[in-house]
Amino acid sequence: MAGSQWELPPELCCRPMAFVALTGLDVVYNAVHRAIWDAFCANRRADRVPISFKVLPGDHEYPKCRTKRTSYEWYIPKGILKTGWMNKHLNLVPALVVLFYELDWDDPQWKEKQSECATKVEIVRTSLQGRNTKVAVVLIQKKTPLPPGEDLVASERAQALCHSCDLSGKSLFVLPHTDHLVGYIIRLENAFYEHAQTYYYTEIRRVKSHKEFLNKTTHQLLFVRHQFKIAFFSELKQDTQNALKYYRTAYSLVHELRAHETNMLEIKTMAGFINYKICRLCFQHNTPLDAIAQFRKHIDLCKKKIGSAELAFEHSAWMSKQFQSFGELFDEAIKLGLTAIQTQNPGFYYQQAACYSQDRKQLALQLCQEVSNYITYKTHYPSPDPLDTQGAGLDFYGQRPWRQGQQSIDPPDAEKEKTGILALQIKERDVPHSELIIALLSNAVAQFKKYKCPRMKSHLMVQMGEEYYHAKDYTKALKLLDYVMCDYRTERWWGLLTAILTTALRCAYLMASIKDYVIYCMELLGRASTLKEEQKSRIEKNLIKVLTNEVPDAEPECDPSSVSAARSLWNDRMALAGSNELTIEVQDYIPFIQCKAKFQSPSFHVDQPVQLQVFLRADCPHPVSFGKLAVSLSNQEYNQWCVAEWSGQEAMSLLPGKTTCYNFSFVAKTEDVGKKIEMTGIEVMLGGDSGRCVFVSWRGAGGDAASAHEALQASRCSRRWGRNIEARQELDWDSLTMQHSTMIISRVPKISVQLSHQPPALTNEMYCIKLTVQSQEEAMAKDVKLTAGLKPGQDANLGQTTHVTLDGSKVCDDSAPSLLPDVPLGELKPGEKLEKCVYVKCVSTGPRVFLFHVAYSIDTTVEGRQIMCKCHKFEPLDRVSVDIPFLLMTDILSSSPWPLLLTSSSLQLLTVTSNTPQLQSQLQEVVLQTGECASECFCLRCPPQTNINNTVATGQYLLSWRRNSSSPDSPLIQTIVSLPHVVLEMVPLYIHADLPSFGRVRESLPVRYHIENRTALVQEVEMAVEPSDAFMFSGLKQVRLRILPSSEQEMLYNYYPLMAGYQTLPQLNISLPRCPTFSTQALKRFLPQRIFVKPQGRQLDDASIAAA
Amino acid sequence: MAVCIAVIAKENYPLYIRSVPTQNELKFHYTVHTSLDVVEEKISAVGKALGDQRELYLGLLYPTEDYKVYGYVTNSKVKFVIVVDSSNTSLRDNEIRSMFRKLHNSFTDVMCNPFHNPGDTIQSKAFDGIVSGMMVQTA
């Protein structure tokens, strides 16, 4: 993998876990041992202790321990951290070696086995010479052990074994190979973990103890190294808090080191490692803000530490890696539950990493360019390879292979230094920078997508596209650029759009993709492009070349080698015959030709020619000529009329910035009457037969991605009004509106249809509507037909209650239809008049819309027209009546606007009988004007033997009438009104009052109440008179009395009115204790409620009257 | 002092962008354009809480390695963006605020011009002058 020099070592990035070696297990051939090993490895979930196990043979050679230094006095360190150190403590030097040995307490050969075990322990010990690694023994036993203390043999032999192996009792374990293996294993590993903890603790102590020997001048590197080691051991001990503390100290110590050009890389490498550890631990401790702060500090400190200028790309590579690894840490933390926000998410770090990678690429290009020149006249890659370390790798992190371990300020060998740098530069040249950048960018894109940053995403995709362009992967570049282009177009960021289009155009050129090339040219020439005139001019010339089947000139700033490749591609394309036609949908672009079209009017009569205009305007710097302009319409038969073609004499060309208008007209077909004609598209053919044809096509009536907004701006613009007044010759392009459809409507009929009638129509009346048809045609109107009647589509009931007939001599019956279709009226000469009466009978009230449709044919053109009229009816009112003797009053209100003549009226009674022997109509020959009212009054009585508590129908009221204006022989219309049903009820007590018709203030007003018992029982009556403000009174205020059956009691009161006007009489409360259902309310109906009190009379000599 | 000042229409297209002439103009266009993501997010978040008592100044939108981007939104959703060099630590929040206020006042004057069609790019010399006064002077 390229760039691996900058990858963080895996031992740095992993989570350090205590290393425990298991020996004496034969996991290949021994099933029991295999099961034990599996129990250790399988299912290492988070709840198990963090240990990494490894099976090693009993005689495994552990890394040798160097002899401990007793004094640092003459020691000069060669570097900060050895490259093997972390791996050594993670994977090579165990914290604990466990010896597995099969031995039961009651083994017959106990003695021999005991000594064999001791030997094995000894072998392990020897190979660990000088290390503090602990040794433990596990006895694999077949029998389940007894509880401790009960097996005397066992404890005795255990002691002996410990003694012979020189082990403490805590380091000897028993593993019975029974059912509960996993349980035993978990207990075992917990014990191992404790031992490992102790080991790492002592290691930390050991490293710390070195400190007193160090001095600040020569051992600066060791301060960093030791702090790092302590921190790392703390991590192995799972003491992350302290680890973080030591790493932080180490970090500040790193920056205290004397930095110069030769050790800059080493310092940065170590700072990067330590920073990585700190950030990682901060995220682990769920303090992301600390991590971010540390990272920012780290970047600020290191940003300027570029180191050797010839290798400046290394710094950028390192910076990029810093950002990338922080982004990865951040992302990992998010996967574990951290929440990021829009302005603080891993995307920013990936983006910055990409940014530094781009810097790296730039620097590499610059610096290695010099190398390339250098190489041409000197040797190639230096030999011997200064970067070769004989396969051993570096001793210390971040050092130069050609001067390892040297810490002096000046390089010892200038020549070596030079070749080393040269070798690095040559290597850098082969790094696939674009690949790295694209990978980082796509990481960033994924993040920004997640955190709702669509514009940032687009921006990064543009960068990706550009990077693909640099990497010469033009297909991918175009795909990305094309994808984001529309975002910038819809947001109207023309500057950015132009920049993207320019790159896209280069891609299209280098790929020789004709269609893309033409599209991008068109848009770069258009009004949205911010290119300068001369650029546009160059592009337009290229476009014309493509149209005439020539090879366009290369785009500027293209790689020369790619250009020559592209040229041959273009030549191939041009040579290829056929497929010379190209259609480009420009609706969603902003092409350099603008198009707007409109029908002159939103509707045309079928006998007028349909006119439409197409406006074209070119935004490019030079005139463009085109071969053909065609409008396609929804009815394709008209398309032939809407084509403008280059005929040879006059070229069709568009001048820059000028609007050109093309007019078309055609005659619509009669089948299209009532239909819409729409423009479905407009096509302009660029180029011609000789070369390549490009059809630029707009959907609908033209317009492109930007024109909607421009039209809106134009409509807002106040200056426009001024322009209109000036009546300028030139059309204002922006305020041109498109009219993409028109309606074909029927010919205007030249015939007058008049209706004369006297609305409203009355119910049941034979209502006459007179129709006058007069022809104004210049020719004979043939086949005139009348359709008259209720307009269809109204309330369904109206159809059944409306009857239309042509016969007005008699009242028509219900069989007459509501609509008379197609009544033939013969022919109409020019100017001839025709009259026709139509009679309408409506059975119910309500507005009705009538349809009168006159159709005639003339020169195969058909017309019609509609007229509406309404019909009304008068409405009778009725009242409620009660039993005993009661009055029936009928009020007849004429709501007809015409005088009505009432000829007679009569009552047809059912249950009730008339009080008067003979009922005579009081309304004979009465004429009612509009709004007038005629009343009749009948006194009726309900016979006593009828069933009580029942509703009874009173009967019907018959009325004969006609319009006063109509002739005496016209039929009389009978209206029957059903009288309301009344509820009959029986009253036990009947009361009526005798009182004068009016009172006068301060004059006595005698009132006599008659109370009648209507039952067959003696009724006890309680009466009370409530006081009233308006009256004083004398008489019994409260009384209880008895009334015999069918007899009557009289009560006399003298009221004395105090106020004038309508006054409420004092209320009489009557209750029957024997008959609780009876209420005062029922009686109140019989009693007068109010009386009119006149004011006191004045004397004649009153001054005021005299004055009047 | 600013290195780039931009006025963005309600519909998010640029009404005015000026950057320090010597530097990469396109890069600033991208910076301003991408900052609209944060502006939009902030507006929608505020819109939910308190409709009318909105603070126009949006503060630091996002920090990049090299620049700090500040935002401001008028009540008619016209956005102002000011980009400041990250190394320029002398500028306090208050100064940025006052720059925005000045910009807003000048913008209001532009809008009051009866010959200016709202939604068109700003071509006012007075506005240009105010902006120039706020930009880093590169003599």
Key phrases:
heterodimer, A: 1108 residues, alpha+beta, Rossmann fold, Immunoglobulin-like, 25 helices, 43 strands, flat, disordered C terminus, B: 139 residues, Beta-Lactamase, 5-stranded antiparallel beta sheet, 3 helices
What's the CATH first level of the domain at 1-213 in chain A? Answer: Alpha Beta
**CATH fold-type name of chain B:** Beta-Lactamase
**CATH architecture classification name of chain B:** 2-Layer Sandwich
Largest sheet of chain B: 5 strands, antiparallel
Q: What class would the helix/strand composition of chain B place it in?
A: alpha+beta
Largest interchain contact: A-B, 26 and 25 residues
Helicity range of chain B: 25-40%
User: Helix share of residues of chain A?
Assistant: 25-40%
Low-pLDDT windows of residues of chain B: none
Percent in strands of chain A: 25-35%
> How far is the N terminus from the C terminus of chain A?
125 Å
Q: Give the number of helices of chain B.
A: 3
**How far apart are the first and last residues' alpha carbons of chain B, in Å?**
14 Å
Overall pLDDT of chain B:
87
Q: What's the SSE pattern of chain B?
A: EEHEEEHH
Measured on Cα atoms, how large is the radius of gyration of chain A?
A: 57 Å
Helix tally of chain A equals 25
Give structural notes.
The complex is a heterodimer of chains A (1108) and B (139). Chain A has 25 helices and 43 strands. Chain A has 1108 residues and is an alpha+beta fold. Among the domains of chain A are: 1-213, Rossmann fold (3-Layer(aba) Sandwich); 502-577, no CATH class; 593-715 and 735-745, Immunoglobulin-like (Sandwich); 751-872, Immunoglobulins (Immunoglobulin-like, Sandwich), CATH 2.60.40; 886-983, no CATH class; 989-1094, Sandwich (Immunoglobulin-like). Chain A is flat and about 150 Å long. Chain B has a single domain, classed as Beta-Lactamase (2-Layer Sandwich), CATH 3.30.450. Chain B is built from three helices and five strands. In chain B, strand 3 and strand 4 (67-73) form a beta hairpin. The longest helix of chain B has 25 residues, at 25-49. Chain B starts with a strand and ends in a 5-residue tail after the last helix. In chain B, 34% of the residues are buried. The interface between A and B is medium-sized, with 26 and 25 residues.
